[in-house]
Amino acid sequence: MTSWLQPPQLRIGEDSEEHERHATWLELFYDLVFVVAISQLAHNLHDHVSLLGFFGFVVLFIPIWWAWIGTTFYANRFDSDDVGHRLLTGLQILAIAALAINVHHGLGESSAGFALAYAAGRILLVIEYLRAANSIPAARPLATRYAQGFAIAASLWLVSAFVPIEWRFGFWALGLIVDFATPLTASKLTVALPPHAGHLPERFGLFTIIVLGEAIIAVVDGVAEQKWNIQSAIAAVFGLGIAFSLWWIYFDNIGGAPVRNARADGRVALLNTWLYTHLPLVIGIAATGVGVELVVASEAGVALADNYRWLICGSVALCFVALGILHRTGVIRYCKIRAKYRIATAVVLILIAILGKGLLPLTVIALVALVCAGQVFQDMYQSRPTTRLSDAI
Question: Could you say which of 91, 122, 218, 255 would form a disulfide bridge with 289 (CB–CB 3.0 to 4.6 Å)?
Answer without folding.
Answer: 218
